[in-house]
Amino acid sequence: MDKLDRFIKLAKAGEGTYGVVYKAKNKLTGKNVALKRIKLEKFYNKEECSEGVPATAIREITLLKGLRHSSIVELLDVMQSTDKLYLVFEYLDLDLKRYLDNTKRQIEKELVRSYMKQLVEALAYMHSHRILHRDLKPQNLLVDKEGHIKLADFGLSRSFSLPTRTYTHEVVTMWYRAPELLLGEKLYCTGIDIWSLGCIMAEMLMKKAIFPGDSEIDQLYKIFKIMGTPNEEIWEGISQFPDFKPSFPMWVPANLKEIVNFHNQEEEDFLKYMLVYDPSKRKTAKELLKTNYLKCAKLTGPEMEAFPLDENEESE
After folding, report:
1. Could you say which protein family the record assigns here (predicted)?
2. Residue 316: predicted pLDDT
């Protein structure tokens, strides 16, 4: 039996830059999987590919083969046909964005805490292996009915060395992009993932993005209006960044309690550890794990109303 013949496509689950993701069933085990199909022909003779395979797919496969963590989506298999590449992942019911959109009530405080612990543990593991995710956002976090949350989509991830080298700053979807990237800094490290995680936590509490900019400058101003306009006093070296302007409007920090629906002070303090301007002063994932907020976390089941019925939909 051809390896691909082991799987029955049940439904289209999503679409990314380089391919379509299907919910599929393994005929041999009866288990559901996520099947990411990448067409190869359109990538031939392009610089960002190797023999027709997009660089993002090569990067994702290489990194995931070396990562084993309960809060990182597992790559089960890689299959190639003449003009397509298939990545087989463990299947989770939906992504965090869809969960937040489909849940009518505010997310329960213990679920937020549980999700944050799992995500911080995954980042601590990745960062200890010198890997940056670089594209953390609710669409790239998968959740299931038991309360697990997992990092997915490692197409923009990369290994980093210390001291940090110059990387492209065109990473991380705009709303979750750290201020140092928006200001043109090319030397960055694990702090960019921590800032993104802070934005994600705020979105869990608010049920909407905290900094929804529509351009790089608008994104900066959205951050400044809430966090205050940064200066050398709070962020040493900021005036040396390529895109820093002394003419930036001066905003004073807003009261976060009036913007984010915190359940308690501990939750607010934890968010503030991540949304710190100076990346050298942001807590690392390892430091975040030592906080009382995460020490009290336990696996918590989500609201079931947000999950699709488990039925065999027709293949698209």
Report:
1. Belongs to the protein kinase superfamily. CMGC Ser/Thr protein kinase family. CDC2/CDKX subfamily.
2. 39
Mean per-residue pLDDT for 113-125? Answer: 97
Q: Mean pLDDT over residues 255-280, rounded?
A: 97
Distance, in Å, from the CA atom of 181 to the CA atom of 200, rounded to the nearest integer, reads 17
Of 269, 254, 185, 270, the residue nearest 221 (C-alpha)? 254
The whole-number pLDDT of residue 111 equals 98
The closest alpha carbon to 21, from 37, 10, 7, belongs to 37
121-167 confidence digits (pLDDT tens): 999 999 998 888 888 999 989 999 999 999 987 655 556 554 444 44
Give the whole-angstrom CA distance, residue 264 versus residue 305.
25
- The Cα 203–Cα 103 span in angstroms is 13
**Which positions are catalytic?**
135
Quote the CA–CA distance of 41 and 82 in Å, as a whole number: 9
Q: Do 272 and 293 touch, CB atoms closer than 8 A?
A: no
Q: Using CA of residue 178, residue 180, residue 186, residue 189, what is the dihedral sign? A: negative
- How far is it, in rounded angstroms, from Cα 196 to Cα 179? 10
Cα distances (angstroms) measured from residue 243 to each of 217, 230, 247 = 10, 13, 11
Q: Mean pLDDT throughout 110-126?
A: 97
Q: Which two tokens stand for residue 304?
A: 């079931």
User: Cα–Cα–Cα angle for 289, 293, 295, nearest 5°?
Assistant: 55
